[in-house]
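Bench notes, bay 3.
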Amino acid sequence: MFRHTLLLAYRSFLRFKSTFFINLIGLSTGLACSLFIYLWVSDELHVDKFHEKDERLFQAMERQQATDGILVSDKTAGLVAQALTQEMPEVEYAAAVLHYSGFPTSILSAQQENKIRATGQFASKDYFQVFSYKLIAGDEASVLRDKNAIVLSEKLARQLFKTTQNAVGKTLQWEMGSLKKQVIVSGVFKDIPVSSSEQFDFLLSFEAYKDTAPWVLNWENDGTHTYVVLKKGANVAQCNNKIANLINSKNGGAHRQLFLKPYSEKYLYGNYENGVQAGGRIVYVKLFSIIAIFILLIACINFMNLSTAKANQRIKEVGVKKVIGASRRTLMGQYLGESLLMAFISLSVAILLVVLLLPSFNQITGKHLLLPVDTTLIAAILGITLFTGLIAGSYPALYLSGFSPATVLKGRLPGSIGELFIRKGLVVFQFALSVILIVAVLVVYKQIAYIQTKNLGYDKDNIIHFLKEGRLYENQDAFLAAVKNIPGIVNASSVGRSIIGSHNTTSGLAWEGKNPDENTAFEMIRVNYDLIQTLGIQMVAGRAFSRSFATDEAKIIFNEAAIAAMGLKDPVGKNINLWGQDLEIVGVAKNFHFESLHENVKPLFFKLEPGQTHAIMVKIAAGKEKEVIPNLQNLYTEFNPGFTFDYQFLDQDYQALYTAEQRISALSRYFAGLAILISCLGLFGLAAFTAERRRKEIGVRKVLGASSLNIIYLLSGDFTKLVLAAILFTLPLSWLAARQWLNNFAYRIDLQWWYFIGAGLAALLIAWFTVGIQAAKAARINPVHSLKDE
């Protein structure tokens, strides 16, 4: 029976070659897109899920009341981990971590001439009890107990010692900014999996950092990340209730609420609005899952429409089979078998496409996806294919098997308003999905363009930055002076680190008239002289730091958002207190966007601390980059022998804030294009069948004087109505979807009416072009041939 079904399917494919190839292209493309999206979504859902204690692993978070609502931060006071371990019986382990993002790149050397740049973190002693990063040397309970300990990644150990064997006990020279010390290797861990949201090369003792930065012992600061493993059976909700006021009890009036969030959720659920979780990368996971379903449905619709459209060519086959005893169930099995066979043939082509295009897909997504042969993937592929085959073949099977033998043997296809309605409805649905995707591509493109061209409040163009390393810390002033003398350089200064991104935050400010219940968090940027001028940040009141004033290290500059949060009138000249130090407000800077446009501009202040800056900023005259950079490199080598000159452009750092959006934009363009292509394939096939069905009508009309344009208009009219219906149905849905996505940005484009009308017109033009090809072909047929009986 199975062999007979295969034979019938094979003959059907040979008989209807054009339909076979249209369906093959459509279904294989749809399945390939779905497989790509499945691999991407699966990878996203598995980020940070590899930790053995995942179900009990949490990150401590803080809610803070601000002037514009409740802010949520993933940073806590440095003492939180210790307090939770000592005071909360539900906590099994807790680790305090200072992330590498807040530090300059470290320099490690086993020998003086072998200097290697690496990124590291400071972590407390229970780090390897909390996280499941596998040690290949050393004991997880003790590798971070010693203040001089360092734990290396496998890759870094090989770079330093050419091997991972016998690395424990060896001495390294560690440098980070102005800090230098000898450290002893206490362990080596396997390289961090790509499925980890945290990537680093080494770990140092958190206790050692306390000695150099006592601010982490202050309950007012929140620059530390705290991770917790609860004991088995512990109730998270009850634990959150108990720890909510922990910081307030240690630091009266802080008004910072502590809570625990599952660690593996932070990657996908990282956005908060007014203290409530509100999306994150999970939005894109859901979006592309829906797109995969859309594309598969479009491909299935093609199959259904083409199968029902060609039914008049199979009616006698159905009639004969029914007369000789074939049941409707048998016929349904045959047509579903053809559909499933078509789906599995398409699957073979789809897998080939995925294998060939996966490297390009990885380049677009920035991932390292593979096509593993495992039960989960096989089950997913088979499930998707069976679903596709059954959905695509269900309606044609029901439709074809339902013909009456007495009627169909007369050669007439029974008319059905329902069949016509369903087919037209499917075309409307198909193009409705295409219009939604076109709108999505256009809105994402316009928002990305807006991000790239918006005035940020500072000049990011033609500015390069690089780390202060080695001798630059001792010779910073001389180096900056020499840099400014290079022809083509406009200005130069130094900053705590790159101006872009979240900086150190503190709520340890007091000012006259401060509300005791207020707990505003301020971003702090340590700067050198000329930094504000180098970046082109405008002052709206007062002045920038200047060497003309000997006491400027006792001054402070706020941005407009900070002054508004403090409620100060005429702030210049007034005093504030920072960590017990009185500082005079010497200027107010115009608000500028140091974070992405997802965020509102936060309160921020500049503090003049040249010795605490770690990055050099250089403004180059436009068009002079090729001349200036080699001279700057020579100067760097002269001042800092033994170190390579590695620089970045500031505008590239800004673009990196929107890596996710840019990748989503690229993927949406490709998937929208494929969805439209599949839709057009189906429309092309339907137009061909329509022209074939109306062949004699076209011949009669041409004999009676109809022109080719009349025939093209005739055949295109019905499809035009369907596409217009799809556009009218889709535009409100497209507007709602676009508005919802744009709500993720604090600064966004306004939705213009022409975005939606333009998308509709694009879909209509594509449909006209597709149908017009077949209509023009039919219009050119000699009426003599059209009127001949078959």
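Next record in the batch:
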Amino acid sequence: MNEGAVRLVEHPHADSVEAVVSALRVDAAVGLSVEEAARRLAEFGPQEIRRHPVQPAWRILLDQFRSLIIALLGVATAVAFLFGEHLEAWAILVVIGVSVGIGFATERQAVRSMEALFALGRVTTRVRRGGRVEHVSAESVVPGDVVLIEAGDIVSADLRVIEASKLQADESALTGESVPVEKRSVPVGVDAPLAERASMLYRGTAVTRGVGLGVVTASGMLTELGEISALVEEATGGSSPLEIRLDKLGRALIGITLGVAAVVTTVGVLADRDLFLMIETGIALAVAAVPEGLPVVATIALARGVRRMAERNALLRRLSAVETLGSTDVILTDKTGTLTENRMTVTRLVTNACRADVTGEALELSGEIVDDGRVLDMEEVSDRTREIRRLIELSVLCNDATLDSTDGDVRVTGDPMEVALLVLGAKVGMRRESLLNRLPEVREEAFDPEFKMMATVHQTGDEFLVAVKGAPGTVIDACTHEADGYGARVPLSADERTNWLERNRVMAGEGMRVIALASTTRPAAEGNPYQGLELIGLVGLKDPPREGVREAIEACRRAHVDVVMATGDQAATALGIARVVGLADHGERIITGPELESFAADDPDARARVAATRVFARVTPKQKLDLIALHQAAGRIVAMTGDGVNDAPALKKADIGVAMGRRGTQIAREAADMVLRDDAFGTIVEAIREGRVIAGNVRRFVFYLLSCNVSEVMVVALATALGMTLPLLPLQILFLNLVTDVFPALALGMGRGDAAVMQQRPVGAATPVINRRAWAGIGAYGLVITAVVLGALWVAQTRLGMGDAEAVTISFLTLAFAQLWHVFNMRDADSHPISNEITRNPWIWGALVLCALLIVGSLYVGPVAAALNVTQPSIVGWAVIIGASALPLGAGEAWRFGRARRGTP
């Protein structure tokens, strides 16, 4: 049967076992022959995920030069070399080298998503080859191979289930389903979502229970894991908001530089100025217009943000991701493992006698049963405790998990839900081993996915106790009686059935997974275990929310950041968890994956409804990408959180991908821009705050740098237009840009921000670093600084009778100190004039002292003074410098005082 063409099945989950096996031309009892397996390996290729090229170091280095600011510096360097100003040229090259070096070193560890995907596939598997069972590597598995499966295996390829006995698989990393999924050989509908294809096992998932047999239907890039690999490759992220804004700023500076240079050159030529002087003036203007310190300051400030976030357990891969976080206004988050702990805990017990809550989480073996605020004494015999004990006893008996705590350490195996039931039993002293000594198990009816029930039969004297657990709807339908709360068995009426279903609905609405337990006693162990059952009660289990999630979501709401849940889990569970964590209220709309698929992309109303929805259930990896694209198309900055294989494409597509570091898969961590070492959702909020602080610092130091550079341009341009002595030489301007600009600007980038930053709206991606109002402020400060510098030059030449070299020194030093004092003008308009974010910043004071020493030192260190062409001022000269340089600070304070008097915001 191995010979002939192999036809891959398009929908193996929906076809019968016979049809799938026939299409793959294999005998399930024998498997492929060794020769046929080799032939198919040659035809389909090795069973591996395609490895995408790793970004080489030279490409990372090249990317550092993509900034327009760096391009402007390159042009300035070329102009300086062209006209023989080699000292200026080499100085600018040093600036470029420092900026590029920092960026390269920080971003050297690029995303390695495909490497992680490849590593996931390195497992071995058992297959039938020529009638014998052989252990082979996953790479050599081919379509048509018959694979043997048992608990603990990692599935090596996409398999159509042929046989299954109590078979379950943990698919949470692939689908987002929070609990293991039952597997069977019965086909499902063609349109069944991935999480509901019980007839399939998928590569990279783990078998948690049972044994089975499957036939390979897809290998390599044709598997679901391979398709996710392709999605990760396609999901390329765009430029960060900071990169976009700085590029816009660079284009604006190019226009300003060319415009000013053209005007000044024209005026100089018309005024018959010396040609060499005009060339020197052009170089000075080029140097003055470009804020050489901007790339260095931005890079160092972002790098420091990366370090500060690392101290808060948020590891960032890209420098620009810091500022992107500050602009984030949508967080698209998974549920399982992100908002919740991905572990089951029994929290509610409901019988006709009482509705009790259970304390103690996860594997805590101590806890209390609390009914109406009163702790129940489970040793006491009463109507309340009698049925609660029966409920717990049945949940422990009808169970395949194991729990061992003999040496103090709790060790468990099996389905997380069944483990949670054993933990519940341990809390009241019911161990399965002890119960089985008294009630030995003589038969088990395995879980039936169709009826969603399982049963165990136990001998009790001359009779047999049947313990049943399962989905509330099917268990209630199978019951003919109920325990009335007083120890009696009474008929289950239609009204009571409705009441029990309503209790189930309420519990599910609270985010619980609900199971029902029933029992009966009969004289024989054989027969249908699901007949004549007595309903005992309901057990509610929760996958608890992570600590601090509710507070973090509330902080996001105050910060005008929308949190959207997109999970592969059931709608009722998703909505219940959303309500528990404060993400949704009882009127919240929910959209499922199939509904999302039906929305027309070009329908504005449908897009608006999707954009306004906060909870999505049963979504696929592709649909997560669509949700991200929808918000991004609306101009929003999207952060995506996740921890599973299925989250990797969305993590890469988002503006900022956030992966869980402890529980997250390697694929998710490698695809993300940020990894949380503590897996705490609240850390994202801290990172957003840090990002906003950094973004505010960036705007502040860009404003400072540009106002300083504009003043330099104006000084040179106006002096040229007025026929004055050139007040600044090119190397003096470069010295100012690297000293009085860089260190105070860097200190501004070290600001810690204040609490109000998380009550403000995020700055949109389209918002420029410098808006019109800021440009007006830059121009105003530039004019004031220009006026005092030219005024100082005029006083030095006309009133103090200084020569050109001495007068230019006065103008140079006036500008230098005016720029230093100007840093205090960077405080917020409504802040206190003495105690504010600038004066409380110790880096500011350190920068001012350092700059003052460097400026004064340049006058007294011979080689430096000669290179800058400066002289040592007299006492009168220092008086002019200090007095004139303080005037812009006074003007800024007067402006703020006037605004405060007028009540202008």
